Amino acid sequence: MRVFPWIIVLVTAFGAANLVSSADAQQPREPAKLPRLAPTDYSVPPSPERAIQALNPSSQDRVQAARQRVARASYVASKVQAGDIQPVDYSVLSNAAGEQYIEGEIVEGAVMEEGPMMPGHATAGIYHEGFGPAGCDSCGDSTCGGDGCNTFCFPICLSLSWEDLSVRAGVEGFKGPLNQGMDGSFGFLYGVNWGTPFFGKSTGLGLQLGVNGSNANLHGASFTDNSRDQFFMTAGLFRRVDWGWQGGVAWDYMSDEWYYDITASQVRGELSWKFQCTGEVGFWFAASDQTSLVNSQVVLQGDSFPTTINQNYQPNNMFAFFYRTPLEVCGGEMRFSAGWTEDSMGLLGAETSIPITQHMAVETNFLYLIPQDSEDRANPYVNETWNVGINLVWYPRACSAASAGKSYYRPLFNVANNGTFSMYPTN
Known about the structure:
The structure is a single chain. By secondary structure, the protein is mainly beta. The protein has three domains: 4-82, no CATH class; 88-160, no CATH class; 161-425, monomeric porin ompg (Porin), CATH 2.40.160.40. The protein is built from five helices and 19 strands. It has helices spanning 4-17, 48-55, 59-82, 93-97, 400-403; strands at 106-107, 110-111, 151-152, 158-159, 165-175, 185-197, 206-216, 228-239, 244-257, 261-274, 280-288, 292-298, 307-315, 318-327, 332-341, 346-355, 360-370, 385-394, 423-425. A hairpin with a 3-residue loop joins strand 9 (244-257) and strand 10 (261-274). The longest helix has 24 residues, at 59-82. The radius of gyration is 29 Å and the shape is elongated. It starts with a helix and ends with a strand.
């Protein structure tokens, strides 16, 4: 393989990279007078001196190149205005890309807007491509089941998008009243979360479904030899926007097997105002809708005889304000929360998502419920609740790790875990 043709490729790439720095160069006074360049003979490789010089052009060379580009663009524009060149008929793209152009609507791979964006608008800035031909978001015999159409049509129409699918695995440490004020729990968490348009993109609604599994206390605890196995499921509806009100509601289910065997469920929701430039301020809550009875015997540390635990537990009713902002540098986002629980405990929490490759991202989260230290609660540490987790997230679709925050149909809620779904004894 010859080396010199590759130098031409490097020169071209380097010139494109310097386009931004040379864009402010002075425009020529006579754009129509273009120098006639002799055709390049690519069969003859450039000399090494010229190739090395082209890799690091001088400021004068960059200015001259910018003038030539501006002159060519102005020359073509003048020809179009004079009628010597006919504008391109973009309607032919409807047959090639399988999309029809409608003014002000989304076209495959682009967005065409009409008029200024208003609060609550949810079409500006979105970018979708490669999700199949037109009609894949609606149910019908002529559209579903065709080549490239990733859509379920029964019982409801759901579009399968790789962009809005994520698979995670990581570790977490947590503790709550179910630990009886003794050892904390540490283990591994793994799960999947997926979002999709709900009854087509015209509704602006998204549907999400996800599950998490957790295996903790793999070697038991000081008061039990059993390991702790958990299962979480989250299903919800949501709506994302570029500017204005956005929010959603989700239902969480948990199954927890340790020295007991309980199930519980709760409802989560959030409502926020998304600013036009950046940042988002809102409110989220978690409300219990099911209680469980723990009836078991354990030998607590320091005791010689088993202690019978016969107590009803329910998910914590939590209320918190939050601030969420994107990380423009790398395409991630972070959220900070502060609030309270129904039992007068304080709440502090944070979540971050940081892409590290086109397919991978690192997610971290913590939530701490501060127990009330008062005379009627002799052992506040028993009710202390906290969760710390770190997960490695895989996005099957290339570049989704950095662009997931730009998709309207990526899940709004994280799948429930021991932070967002924590149990508390009822009176």
